[in-house]
Batch of 2 targets.
Target 1
Amino acid sequence: MEKAPGSPSVRGSYPQKTAGILSSQYGINLFLAGLVLTFAWAVHAVGISKSHLLSYLITLMLVQLLWMLWYLCRSCTQRRLIREKDTHAGARWLKCGITLFAVITLILDSFKIGYYVDFSNCLSAAEGIFPVTHAIHTILQVYFLWCHAKDIIQSFKTLERFGVIHSVFTNLLLWTNGVLTESKHQLNEHKERLITLGFGNITIVLDDHAPQCNCTTTTLCSIFSQGIYYLYPFNIEYHILASTMLYVLWKNIGRKVEHHQQHKTPFKFHGITVGMIFGLIVLISTIAKVVVYLIQIGRSKNKSELALTMFYLHAISVLALMCTAGIVALLIYRLEDRSLDNSKNPARKLDAELLVGTAAGSWLLSWGSILAIICAQAHPKYTWYNLPYSILVIVEKYIQNLFIIESIHRKEEKVNDDIKTLRIVTISRGSTLSLTPSYKEIYNGRATGDEGELPYLLNGSICARENDAAKEEASQANCPAMHSAPELSFYSRNSVANHKRRILKNIAAFLFLCNLSLWIPPAFGCRPEYDNGLEEIVFGFEPWIIVVNLAMPFSIFYRMHSAASLFEVNCKT
């Protein structure tokens, strides 16, 4: 029955819709103001210093801290109330991942505090307050996400919308600040390598934000300053994960959910040995490649070219294997007749949008490299490897996105209408007895002690299959069974389905480790887009560096988000 236009429920939806629009506009303006301030500091705008940017970020974090404390206190006073939960949001493995990144972020904050102490004579107070506030913010936010990431808020909805969206864009600004700081450091290292290699045709000015005073303890200052930049990739991933989890919480405010049981899907190593072995080989070889690359690049022209050649050949091999694995998985899906789950799910929708949106970053870099190879007049030998590498980056992400998005939208396997129950017919005292456990019990292995085996009924007792081979043969000899054609057909289909499922789990495990492997090089400074040189000659140094600095953070995030999604696919398959 449709509700009348003037009914209370319809009228009540208008203020909430307005609150959603107002809160989103508030968050966007909050973010844009911080983005302009960050940009002004980055380009050394007159009258804008780092202390202004940090003061703005500190204010945002303090406001979020007050809101989280208020929410936690209100939740404690209403502990006895039954709260609705979104079972798809805030998975345990996701919480564990964000906790790991948060711990490393706390180490980063401690390094920043030590750095401030050593340079306290010439650094502003904001640079000392920021890491302390950020550490407190990190601890409370992780606790908040562990306890309330699944909440579906149904009270104080207007206020909560503003509080949650404030938290989302606060984390996005902290992510932007981390990306910019890390990118400036990488750019300075790249410029220093160009100076070493003697590129005189490029105007190189180091973007120096270093303190204008001496350090009190030189050794500690060196450890802190170098250690900070190696920890930034984890800090960047922490904030983007936190913002996505909070965004799902914001989307769930006031949402009506269908009450159905959500089956837990724990991660199991059983059956994915092949995928894990090949994935670990890729991971170990990638770590070795990054170490060699960082040692060799910039030492001399010959060593740099060898390092770039090694990078491209390794990446081409890995990407080709990933494309093959993805195509096999998609072919298996095409052979199966299973519908997709199109029900409303904010977490799943966000995952799919992030996969496609962040893939655009590396696609932009790849098309830039392809165009540079086509237009360049001179082609050093190592630059030709960049062509298949760039093409494979585009194709691999295309295939992988299809596989992941289809995997997270696939419905669980349903019971065949032709086989509602399985009959086990045996002879007992000259009479026929039937034992008819449900399909689901046998399929899940609960009707028997051993998966895939049928119990045999003789003389009123069930003869279970023993582990010992001799007992097994004796049991089968003493317990004759007559299986009907539908039963044999079911077990044949079940065996094929199990083989397909095992192949898909191995593919998901392999791609999971491959994406972790491909996250490592750009996150820790192995970026041939900087060192190749061909793109800088075609597009110009400054324009290409701007493109790389804008696109690279999305490319790095894509790999980590893909790894997280593939972990979920492995658990679900």
Note: DSSP finds 16 helices and four strands in the chain.
Target 2
Amino acid sequence: MKFEDLLLEIGGFGRFQIFILFILCLPRVNLPMHFLLHNFLAATPSHHCAIPHQQAFVNLTTEEVLLISIPRDPDGTFRSCEMFSQPQFQLLLNSSLQPENNSIIQQCQYGWVYDHSQFTSTISTQWDLVCEQRGLNQATATFFFIGVTMGAVVFGYLSDRFGRKAMLLLSLVGSIIFGMLSAASVSYSMLVITRTLTGVALSGVSLIVLPLGMEWVDIQHRTFSGILTSIFWSIGNMLLAMVAYLVREWHWLVVAVTGPCLLSIVCLWWVPESARWLIANGKVKQAHRHLLRCARMNGRKDFTVSPEALRRMVTDKKPGGSYSYISLFRTPVLRKISLCSGAVWFGVAFSYYGMSLNLTSFGLNMYLSQFVFGIIEIPAKMIMYVLVNRVGRRQSQAWSLILTGLCIGANVLIPTSFTSLRSVVAIMGKGFSEAAFTTIFLYTSELYPTVLRQNGMGYTSFVARLGGSLAPLVFLLDEVWRSLPEVTYCGVAVCCGLVAFLLPETLNVRLPEGIEDVE
């Protein structure tokens, strides 16, 4: 007897599964509020060099002081990172005659003055992460995703070794501790360290929630449960826009997005360990107890199964704890799956975060962009629910990622004056990007066997977070060529989308239990 047959007997998608999925959706809401927090945490408002007070400025207005102290660009805006070494009083007579002598222009010497109309404070304004320090600002997101990358390796192994539920609880507790420490940061170094550790902890939530829910659901409802769980990511996206709009001070914003983890910890009490994992690791008595509870909640009171029957279901001779990441590359089919899925995950994450962390370049208000980018993901998921069941996982994955790249590339060609068209193309690209992300989570959990599923998810999540780590740094390439970041995102997305065609199809295929099922 296979576990899939057992699920059909106890109810493969009844009240028990729906109850568990909704509880697991709570931490899912919290993830984008941290993963995309950089948009608001590190937002850089308009700024200019601070100008020391001089006696000659007594009778001048603020605008006149700026006029004689800070050079202007051809479009008339004051430069953010430069000032005149001496006041240029002649500009009061004719402000259009900008000095051509660059020797009188220097970098800001006395700090910066920021526009606080939109943000009370951000890490950019608190620690002056602008101009020459701009790279440190972008690096904040990179350090967070480095933490997520490390967490993917750690929690992928530990959840296969010690169980899904225990590691999910550990990751939620860690998220609260390090999230609150981030909010209390008194220096940039402290913030970087605590945000990195927050990323490590949240990686466990990202990694475990979907497989834990999927392992309780039958084949027919596997896609639905995956889409349902991912919709709550989009809800978190929209909630982030609303919370950030209401909380403009970065310390309290971090507290606001971390607090909901407490509710997830309380609700986790009612979530059982994965019966698949318990059986695969020989913990038959616990699995038996959870299966009976599932049958009762689903109204299958006549269900009976002996612990001895469950022992016979163990499909592999090796104990679950003796597998490692090396096992993903030992056999030929698994090796091909691991290499190709790793490439696809990199492309999906790289392009997704390339768009999600670039809210200001599509012609919309950043809060509105965040909300619209979240809401467009829901119809994208609904469409993918139909497509993955009609045309299959492989085609859906490949084309959604390729179309993401093409939308990013199209905005390189569309002039910046066509703001409405650029916004529409960007929103379409965000929809395709989320469709690719939704599919890859579902697809990967079906490609790997139970005994290696969390190792597989850990490895692919590790590669994805490398993509997420690099995505914010690519924005700095605009100093080489303004469109180079978009061209990079486009090229990577299209190439990785083509790699998806090399993966096997998993539509209506049983979840593999052991390595021999895959081979």
Note: The domain at 1-38+131-316 is CATH 1.20.1250.20 (Growth Hormone; Chain: A;).
